[in-house]
Amino acid sequence: MIPAGSSTGQIRALSANAGRFTARQTSLIDAIWIPVKDGDDTGRAIFENHYSRRKYFNGRFDRRFCGPGEKMVLLTPDALALFVWRKFFSMDHQEGINCAIFRNEGTTAGRSSDLIRAAMELAWERWPGQRLYTYVDPRKVSHKRDPGRCFLRAGWRHFGWAKHGQRILEALA
After folding, report:
1. How far apart are alpha carbons 20 and 6 in whole angstroms?
2. Average pLDDT over the chain, rounded to an integer
3. Does residue 165 come out as left (phi exceeding 0), alpha (psi in the -120 to 50 range) or beta?
4. What is the pTM of this model?
5. Which of 26, 83, 105, 169 has its CA 20 to 30 A from that of 33?
6. Pick the CATH number of 31-171 from 3.40.630.30, 3.40.1350.10, 3.40.50.2000, 3.40.30.10
């Protein structure tokens, strides 16, 4: 029997124990996102699989992966999703807080749209009233009928196109 008050996101599996089933949590931390520093090894490992990952031509290695500017780096407790907010000067004159990286590798913390909404709340706590925006490259994400669909389901809207063919999505406070 699953204990009352257990959330589905916390329960990974039921295991047989002397003829009874007991719930096993995926994490002892009851949070959707945990803040970490730029350069966190787990965050870097997830980022290595993101389509925006670029390697230096000269082969050098930089532990940091977020880029310049003020940033908020978030991991799920099960270390299967990464979210990075950045506040910086955008070369295409976008204003607000940029979702520089979002990658979900199958976390038990919730659906991608739920993770995005939770990250939005954290961004607006730190930068109240700021516009949130991101770029989605339709050529590099898995072929879907609507690139950026998880953002759209989280309440974002299409804003326009960047000069290199990336879709710009935004969320307003």
Report:
1. 17
2. 79
3. left
4. 0.73
5. 169
6. 3.40.630.30
